[in-house]
Design brief:
globular; alpha/beta
Length: about 80
């Protein structure tokens, strides 16, 4: 996850991968999983624009964090 403000003053959050939420065989332990989940949840609440790496991640962001689809952009 990367947070920054773009040249228009919008708060942007870039999300690379959130497979730790759905993949039970992920190497994160329970504390790392909860820490990253809450950190990303807080960042996405205040975001004006969300950039994701692929369509699966976009689907998961909508599914787990209830982010509106119109603020999500899939990076090519």
């Amino acid at each position: 996850m990367k947070k920054y403000t773009d040249k228009d003053g919008l708060k942007v959050v870039e999300v690379g991968d959130i497979s730790y939420l759905s993949d039970r065989d992920h190497p994160y332990n329970w504390f790392q999983r909860h820490f990253h989940h809450h950190r990303l949840r807080i960042a996405l609440k205040t975001a004006d624009k969300v950039i994701v790496s692929d369509a699966k991640t976009a689907f998961d962001v909508v599914r787990f964090y209830f982010v509106p689809k119109d603020i999500i952009t899939v990076k090519p």
